[in-house]
Amino acid sequence: MVTSPLQVLHAAERPVAGAAPLPRLLIAGATGALGSEMVRRLAGSGRFAHTQVLAREPLREGLRAVRTTLVPGDDPPAWPAAAADVAVVLFDPPRLFHDRERALWTPAPSHLPALAAWLHASGVRTVAVVLPHAPGRLPEALKRGLASLDEHTVAAQGFDRLLILRSARKPGAEPAGSLPVRLASGLLGVLRYMVPTRDQPVRAACVADLLAHALRLAPPGIHVATPEQVWQAAQGDAEGVARQWLQPAP
């Protein structure tokens, strides 16, 4: 008996008896280079039943198993509950030349506590937050812990797993000033090139790769990746860094 390709495809799509259902993923802030990489990497991994992306306006989905979830306004407590198991929160602003990204909902840091409460009420048990920081502005102890009261509020929600990734970024542009100020800024500008390599920004694909491994390997609890660990993962062995970070040897 000859089996047609259509029968093979139908058989592959049938759920396996006794197999555990795949978790449902929700991404808040799927904008910018980082958001695009997260959607591509996580939605295409085959580890999630489907991926929801928060949006302000209806969008036509172009990826399989990816759909938009409309949210009214910027007040998460007023949103209807969603249905998800894993959530990723990003703060990458939308790129102005991507019309699609303007329709997506982008959280601000001030939204984090309310957003976390909404995610917990929606059934989310694992949350990953990617927080960029300015080099040199965080004490060394805070790089390795919860750096703000908002993050403490998120941790107090009672998620099974909370992952926080701190990724370096370039310093912002200096505001224009008087001639002496501009002259001094120009003379001291060479110091910007002395920022340690570990604090230089890493590619969005590297951060997405590290997070994908972390979501797979992380045990219950709160896990914070420092900028040094994110930089190390960007050198080529993201899975090895994730294992060392989340499953350290006794």
Descriptive key words:
34% helix; 10 helices; 250 residues; Rossmann fold; alpha/beta; 7-stranded parallel beta sheet
Provide an overview of this structure:
The structure is a single chain. With 250 residues, the chain is α/β, with parallel strands linked by helices. The chain has a single domain (21-246), classed as 3-Layer(aba) Sandwich (Rossmann fold), CATH 3.40.50.720. The protein contains ten helices and seven strands. The chain has a seven-stranded parallel β-sheet. Strand 1 (25-28), helix 2 (32-43) and strand 2 form a beta-alpha-beta unit. Helix 2 (32-43) crosses helix 8 (204-217), helix 4 (112-121) runs parallel beside helix 6 and helix 8 (204-217) packs across helix 10. The longest helix has 14 residues, at 204-217. The radius of gyration is 21 Å and the shape is globular. The relative contact order is 0.13. The model has no long low-confidence stretch (mean pLDDT 79).
